[in-house]
Amino acid sequence: xxPCMVSSSDPDRGDLVIPSSCHPLIPSSCHLIxxxxxxxxxxxxxxxxxxxxxxxxxxxHRIDGVILGCTELPLLLRPDDSPLxxxxxxxxHAEAALTYAYAEN
Length: 105
Hints:
Distance between the termini: 35 Å
Strand content: 5-15%
Order of helices and strands: EEHHEHEH
Number of domains: 1
Mean pLDDT: 78
Helix content: 40-55%
CATH topology: Rossmann fold
């Protein structure tokens, strides 16, 4: 439920960096998702918490992008909130489904 990081700007070829459960911010991720975002609470402090995690991984693990793997995360972060590529999995799945549906077979 935490965002995963991509260490290449090409998500099809990048290495996946999964934040360590030992990272001091990770235990708060479940609280953020279930006690705040799932209930519709999209506060500035939650956004800043997530940006802090992303910037920490960008600085220490040389990531280029972030996979927003929980459907609530894109409601909190917009592409212009981070200099890194933010990959909204809901958008990616919808685009893939439409491509598949309209493909000539």
